[in-house]
Amino acid sequence: MTKCCLLLIPFLCACLCLQAQDNYPLRFRIGATIAFGMTHMAHNDVGVGGEAGVEKPFSKIFSAELEAGYTYFTGDKMVYDEGGNKAWAIPLLAGARLYPQKWLYASARAGAICFTINSENSTHIRPAYGIAAGVNLPQKINRLNVELQYTGFSFAGNSRGYATLAAAIIIN
Prior knowledge:
By secondary structure, this protein is mainly beta. Helices cover 9% and strands 60% of the residues. Strand 1 (27-39) and strand 2 form a beta hairpin.
């Protein structure tokens, strides 16, 4: 799994750098996120943050993407000594998008995540994966991206993950 993720990232980065014959322009996006801890996110319920991404279309239905984000999880149900109730995640994921409609897409991603969970004293980096579905609105000019995504990773023998609702401005 780790080797696969590490090989996928440079491959997709290279794909983003290539110029397709159809010369589709790069699409950049930046926006805000709200996240909900789904599995083993150390008693943290809600996270807030932001994301930035770039997408390289290769055709009308297929594109490669690279996305980075930051989520700070709040809403911890427990009290820790010395302010240890901090949990945050910085995923860097590359993937492929499939557009069944011009404005609707589904995406599969792989990469790495840097995180700290509550009373941990150090930052950890692990392989990560994700899936997403979203829409680009309005349909004619696609200037707003609304996306629902799941990011997962493994740590301390547990599969962990969180769902994110993101709204971003598309910059061409």
